[in-house]
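Q: For a teaching session next week I want to show students how multiple molecules come together into a single three-dimensional assembly. I've collected the sequence lines for a complex. Could you give me the predicted structure tokens for the whole thing so I can convert them for display?
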Amino acid sequence: MSRLYAVAAAALLLLMERAAQSAPVNLWMEKANAAYEQGTFDTARVYYEKIIAAGTNSSDVYYNLGNACFRLKQIGPAVLAYEKAKALSPNDPDIIANLKFANLNTVDKMPQPERSFISAAAWRLHTLVSLETQLWVLLAMLCLLAGMISWAFFASHNVRLWLIYGSALLGSVTALAGFSAGAKIWQAENIRYAIVLAPAVDAKSEPNGSKVLFSAHEGAKLRVVKDLDAWSFVSLPNGSAGWVENSALGRI
Amino acid sequence: MKRLVSSVVWSILLAGACGAQVNFSVFADRTSLALGEQFMVTARVVSSKQLASHPLPQMPPSDDFAVLRTSQDQSSSTSIQVINGRMAQNVEITYLTYYVIQPKKEGTLQFPSLSITINGQTYASQPFAVLVGKGEVVPANDVSVRLLIDKKDLWMGEQTRLTLQIVQKANTPVVITREAFEIFKSMLMQKLGNFCAVAPLFKDGPSGRREQINGELCAVFRASFSLIPTTAGDIAIPPLPFEYIIQKRVQNQRRVDPFFGSFFGDDFFGPSVQQIPKSTMSNGLTIHVKSLPPAPAGFSGAVGRCGFSSSADPKSVPAGEAVTLKIEVRGNTRPNSLGEIKLPPMENIEIFTPEKHIFSDTSEAAGINSRKSWSYMLIPQQEGAAVVPAISYVYFDPDAGEYKTLSSSPSALEVTKGTGAKPQSGARYLTQAEIREVGSDIRYIKTPRSLAVRTDRPYRNPFFLILYPAPLLAVLFAGLYRLQSTRKKDAALMLRQKAVRNAYRGIDTIRKNAAQFSPADFLGRCAGVIETYITHKFGFAAAGKTLDEIKDELARRTISEALRTALTGFMQTLDGYRFGGATLNENARADVLVKTTEMVEQIEKALRKEKRS
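A: Of course. Below is the structure for the complete assembly, covering every listed component.
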């Protein structure tokens, strides 16, 4: 009952806020955090969602929303919020830790692919920085490379030689960074994931079909291959694939 | 019963009347000695509260031992602990009573039980055996060295005490040096090192005191060693030499000089001291070491008198929270010999790697005593009843000559519903590896001062769309500029290289067609050849410039003053004839052409010369 009152009070507060037309997301964030500290996670969740609805795409807000959902024992929404936070700040240690912790509470354990040492090192380099940071670094490297090449056009023979060597080296690194950034962009554009929000969902052989291929439980991360009306064709890391209803999924 | 060390008997009881915790123990500094020697028995009472008077344990009359004298001492210690903000103070008051005892006869004598009554509660020690031998205690000479062992018939791994006893008659001019002791010690340890684990029980050296032995006052030095045999069989310690020095006062026997004799030859400087090195042999010893009988399963490797305790706390715990299981093993052996505890598997209980603590106490009276404790963190995974099963510890008791097993009783745990995980049946709590990886809970929320808005598709940022082509454009621009300037440079170079040839060609053309040109036209063409040559050679447009301007341009290009004057003079002459309406015959025209050619050659020569220099 007290939870209901808390939700009602939060909703009233939100209405008042809306009437004021102030949209102060930082103030909402403070209120949400205060509610979280007081243990009224429902209220905190409403505020966090309001901030997101106002168009504030912040990893901190998604992270806090994940925490509020986790405290409310809503593992699916918590994992979804953490995944969204991770998409914005892929290297934030708090987000990674809480996502791992939330995943421990999910029923389905998705095995991670085993990597060789070289592959693991390459993957580590690939995911070392966020895409945004990588793009800025890449831009800086391109500017530097352009400067060196331009200088080489007008430099004396000896200096030109050094500039050519330096440009070759920097060009190689830039190419690798560019390849990595390209892969990330391709992934962002072409690979979509969703989190199961329902307690359990059956993946079927066809939309509205009756044959169940596998079941996924709340918090499971599925790859969305394609969509068809209210259905999504999803796959698991082990290769299993099937159609599930969109209403049971939350898109990352 | 023979004991390698002093017999220690603990009687630990609570004094209920006043609430003071009392601990009473009795021990002797040695239990193997010769008739006529003395040993010291210490009675220790440790109380958590101050007692009304110093307790004096009662020793019953004995036909075997005589109490030569007694003395008392008292000390206190306070320790303060702060646990979870609570301060706890622990006070211990120790009352010591020392008895100097002399055996009255030879043989294995039983030291009687001492008793004491505190606050109506009676505490009593257990009797222990004292081995009294014959031996030459009082040295026939000035010094005697003896090796005494508490127990000669040992099991492998059993600890015994070997005592080096040096007795020196009082008031004899004998000097026993530290160096002599160290040499003897190293010889002894070398003899035993291959068969035993030997560890000195003293810190700074042998302890010395004055004792009455058979009524004669002697200085007695003792140093004890812990001996733990590692191989079975007989270990023989041969007699070993011990060096000491006798100081002898001698009168100077120098030859007396007839002149100074009266001064240096008298006793004014006193007699000198002569140091005479001497040695004596210790007694030999043979120790018989028996192999252990076949060991039962689970034998820890410990040989000695061992104790064992275990406790689990708390008894009631929510699922997913920790219970601490403490296990302690103690024994009169080295820490390594106590072995390890192996916990039996426990259903629905996660067992974490324990914290291990090792304590070792070394004293001359008790030898090496060790204590090993393990603190396990157990996490029940499911609510309901859980049991920590009985834990066993198997060791070899050398006194009984058999293996013994110490066991704890099973501890029942009540596991209530957990708070941090799924409530349904079969819910899985975190495993040890998972807890190590992610901690025990989610991390706290973030509280930034202002929200940093980010996008998961930063590559769509217009800044990137604008800025990314910029480096490429910069390179393209630089390349084009470079290409253009190269082309220009190449054209100018070509013209410069061809300047002479073009000049000669122009002169030839004028020569061939000289008849067709009017004098003014002829002279104008000759001037034009020179101007074109200068333009191509020096990279500036000479046509349209005055002679002074041409002169200045040439000066800037480091053409010598003489040549500049000659060139401008020649051009001025041409212009003079040209605009003065001069008529030129064929010879004059040929002469002008020759001079024009010479002028070009002169300039070329000057440039070559300048280039060489």
